[in-house]
Specification:
The chain has 595 residues and is an alpha/beta fold. The structure holds one RNA strand of 77 nucleotides.
RNA sequence: GCGCUUGUAGCUCAGCUGGAUAGAGCAUCGGCCUUCUAAGCCGAGGGUCACAGGUUCGACUCCUGUCAAGCGCACCA
C-alpha cells in the first residue's frame, strides 16, 4: 500500500467507534432511530485538547434533550477500547477529545521514510482530467509582476492537483489575433522606420516599451530596408492623434490599415509574426526560468484558421441562442444568467474576442476535461457570467468550469505606489523582480497570500538583502538538518536507521511529540490545499513545520552520546527534512543543503 | 446606479467552511552563542475581528442592512 495515510485511518477508526456508540444510544432508546448524525472529527488546535476531537455530543444534545457534557460522558462510556487511543476526555462545553497513543504516532516517521518523496501524495484525483489555464497574457510585451502572481499561483495549483492524483494539463492561451496584436505590429513598424532614418511621430496609443525598439532594430539589421516606406506616405491623410486634437483610436486604426496597404498582406504578416515570435519566446523563457512549464501553448489564431469559431457559433445558432441586430450577431447570454446579451460578430464581419473564447471553451470540452480551471486577473471577473452562459449554450455541464481570480499585486517602492501600464512601458517586469529578489523568494512571496487577497508587494523590502523573507526561514530549517548530518560525518559517527526506528519511543520530549504531530498532518494539508486551490495553506504549513523544527533544534542536542536516542532523533529530523523537501519541491522552490 | 472582491494587532497577513483563551511575521521592548549554522530560540506589550441588527447551545466565520477600499459594467482584448 503505497499511499498509506495514518491520519485518515485514525479518523476512520474514531468514526467507527463513535458509530458504535450511536448504535448503542439508539438501542437504549436515548436517541431516536431516525436520526443519523454526521460524525465530524477534526484535528485539535491545542495539544492540551489531545489529537482529535468531535463535537458529536454538542450536536446531539438538542435531539436527545440533555446537556452536552452529560451526553458526552454517556458516549464515552459506550466507546469500545482501542490500543491506538491512550485517553478520551470531555472538555469545554462538551467536546470529546481523543489522545492518540505515542506508539501509534511514532509510526509516522517510518511512513515518511518508506514513502520518501511520495509522502503526502495521494490518488484522490485519480481518473480525473483537469486543465489549468493561466497567465495567458497578450504577447505584446514582457511579463510584468502582475502576471508573475498568476504564474506562481497557477503552477502551484496545477502541481498540487497533480500531487493528489489528478491528470493535469497546464495551458497558456496565446492571444495572437486581434487588434492589440495589430497595434503591436504597427508599433514595431514605426520604430523600424525610425531605424531606417524616417521621421515619424509615435502614436500615443502604441506600445512604447524599449523592447519594441530592440525588435525593430533586429528586423532592420536582418532585412535592411525591405519594410521601408517614406514617412509622408505613412502619415498621409491619417486622422490626428489625441495630443493634436484627434482621436487616438481612430489614429491608430488608420495606421494599421495603412501598414497593411503599404506593406501588402505578406510582408505585414511577416512583420507581425516576427514581433510575435520574439515576444512569445521571451515569455516562454521567462516562465521556464520561473519554474513554470506548460503542456500546451494554444493559439487563438488557430481557432480562426480551423473554423472552430464558425463551428462554435453554428452550435449556438442551432440551439437558438443567436440573433441579428444593428448589423451585428448577438449571443443571447442574458437568457443564461448574464446581465446582457453579447456581440459575437461585429457589423464589420469580424468576430469578437468573446467568440474566440466560446470556441476555445468548446475545444476544451471536446478534449474531454472533467474540470476546466481558468485563472484570471480579478479585473476580468465581469467576464465570468458570459463564459458560463456559453458553456450552458454549448450544452455542457457548467460546473466543470472553475474560474479562480487572482488580485493584482500592488507595487510599492517604500511608501510610493509604482504606476503600471503596459502601453506606457512603465512597468516592473517579472524578470527584473526575479533577478532582484531571486526566483525562490518571488514564488514563495506570491503564493504566500490567498489569491483573491489584494497584495502589497514592497519592492524595496523584497529587494533589500535583509532577508526578512520567510522563504529563508523554511529553507534554513532544511539546511540545518543537512548541516547536522555533515557534523555526524565529521565526528566519525554513522547513522543507524534500524536502531533509530526501534528506539522511536525514546522521543518523548514535548518538542519531539509536537514535531511528529505536525509531520503527520502533511498529507491532509496537501489534500486540502489542492482541492481548495489554496497553495498558501501549504506555505503556512511549511512555516509551521520549520518553526517547530527550529524550536526543537534550540532546545535539544541531536548528536548525543546515547546511540539509540541519537539515531531516533536523526530519524525524526530526517523525516522533517523529507517533508520540507517535498513541500518546497512541489512549489518549485529550492532546498539548499547549506546557507 | 448595478455587480464582484475585500475590511482581523502600528504594518503585512493567517484563522482548518459554525467550535474551546482570535494567531503568525515584521516593527517595539527584555533575555539566550567556550555545545549540531544566532538567516535561530525564549519572553513581554499590542484587538470593540469596519459598524448595527438577526439566526443558535456557540458567530471572525452564516443572513440582512450601513460605511469604507479595489475592480468591473464595449460591436477592446
Amino acid at each position: 500500500m503505497l499511499f498509506f495515510h495514518p491520519f485518515k485511518i485514525m479518523k476512520q477508526k474514531l468514526e467507527t467507534l463513535l458509530q458504535h456508540a450511536i448504535t448503542c444510544l439508539k438501542s437504549e432508546a436515548i436517541l431516536d432511530q431516525e436520526i443519523a448524525p454526521q460524525i465530524i472529527i477534526e484535528r485539535t488546535k491545542d495539544s492540551r485538547h489531545g489529537d482529535f476531537a468531535t463535537n458529536l455530543a454538542l450536536s446531539l444534545a438538542k435531539p436527545v434533550k440533555t446537556n452536552p457534557r452529560q451526553l458526552a460522558e454517556k458516549i464515552i462510556s459506550l466507546l469500545p477500547s482501542d490500543p491506538a487511543i491512550a485517553k478520551v476526555e470531555i472538555a469545554g462545553p462538551g467536546f470529546i477529545n481523543f489522545f492518540i497513543s505515542p506508539d501509534s504516532q511514532f509510526q509516522i516517521i517510518e511512513q515518511i521514510h518508506t514513502a520518501g518523496r511520495n509522502y503526502g501524495s495521494s490518488k484522490i484525483g485519480a481518473g480525473e482530467k483537469v486543465q489549468v489555464e493561466f497567465v495567458s497574457a497578450n504577447p505584446t510585451g514582457p511579463l510584468h509582476v502582475g502576471h508573475g502572481r498568476g504564474a506562481a499561483y497557477g503552477s502551484a495549483v496545477a502541481d498540487l492537483l497533480q500531487a493528489v492524483g489528478f491528470d493535469v494539463s497546464k495551458e497558456y492561451y496565446v492571444n495572437d489575433a486581434g487588434r492589440q496584436m495589430d497595434i503591436l505590429a504597427v508599433s514595431i513598424w514605426l520604430r523600424y522606420l525610425e531605424e531606417c532614418g524616417e521621421v515619424v511621430t509615435f502614436p500615443c496609443n502604441g506600445y512604447r516599451g524599449e523592447y519594441i525598439r530592440d525588435i525593430a532594430f533586429n528586423i532592420h539589421n536582418n532585412t535592411g530596408n525591405e519594410y521601408r516606406h517614406p514617412a509622408e506616405l505613412v502619415i498621409e491623410d491619417i486622422p490626428a492623434d489625441e495630443p493634436h486634437g484627434g482621436d487616438k483610436e481612430l489614429h491608430i486604426d488608420a495606421l494599421i490599415v495603412r501598414a497593411k496597404t503599404l506593406l501588402g498582406d505578406s510582408l505585414y504578416r511577416d512583420l507581425f509574426q516576427a514581433g510575435l515570435n520574439v515576444i512569445l519566446d521571451d515569455i516562454k523563457d521567462d516562465l521556464e526560468e520561473f519554474g513554470v512549464t506548460y503542456q500546451e501553448w494554444f493559439s487563438e489564431r488557430s481557432l480562426m484558421e480551423d473554423h472552430s469559431i464558425k463551428d462554435a457559433l453554428q452550435r449556438l445558432d442551432d440551439g437558438g441562442y443567436l440573433y441579428k441586430k444593428e448589423g451585428a450577431t448577438w449571443f443571447a447570454s442574458s437568457r443564461l444568467g448574464d446581465e446582457k446579451d453579447r456581440v459575437v460578430v461585429r457589423d464589420n464581419g469580424q468576430s469578437t474576442y468573446f467568440a474566440s473564447d466560446i470556441a476555445y471553451h468548446m475545444n476544451k470540452l471536446d478534449r474531454g476535461f472533467d474540470q476546466i480551471i481558468n485563472i484570471w486577473g480579478a479585473d476580468h471577473h465581469g467576464y465570468i457570467p458570459r463564459v458560463r452562459a456559453a458553456m450552458l449554450a454549448l450544452g455542457a455541464d457548467e460546473s466543470k468550469l472553475k474560474v479562480l481570480l487572482v488580485q493584482f499585486a500592488i507595487l510599492y517602492r517604500g511608501t510610493e505606489k509604482v504606476p503600471m501600464s503596459t502601453r506606457s512601458g512603465e512597468f516592473v517586469t517579472l524578470r527584473q523582480l526575479r533577478s532582484e529578489v531571486g526566483t525562490d523568494a518571488a514564488r514563495f512571496f506570491y503564493v504566500m497570500r490567498k489569491s483573491e487577497q489584494h497584495m502589497d508587494f514592497d519592492l524595496k523590502l523584497a529587494t533589500s538583502k535583509t532577508n526578512e523573507n520567510p522563504v529563508f526561514y523554511v529553507q534554513y530549517a532544511h539546511a540545518r538538518v543537512c548541516s547536522v548530518l555533515r557534523q555526524l560525518d565529521e565526528k566519525g559517527l554513522n547513522r543507524n536507521l534500524n536502531l533509530g526506528m526501534k528506539n522511536l519511543n525514546k522521543l518523548n520530549e514535548s518538542h519531539e511529540l509536537a514535531l511528529i504531530t505536525i509531520l503527520s498532518k502533511y498529507p491532509e494539508v496537501l489534500e486540502k490545499a489542492a482541492l481548495q486551490y489554496e497553495p498558501h495553506l501549504l506555505i503556512n504549513y511549511l512555516r509551521e513545520l520549520a518553526t517547530s523544527f527550529h524550536t526543537y533544534y534550540n532546545a535539544h542536542q541531536f548528536l548525543v552520546e546515547n546511540e539509540a536516542l541519537r539515531n531516533a532523533r536523526l530519524n525524526l529530523i530526517c523525516a522533517t527534512k523529507q517533508v520540507l523537501s517535498n513541500g518546497l519541491s512541489l512549489l518549485n522552490i529550492n532546498t539548499p543543503e547549506s546557507m
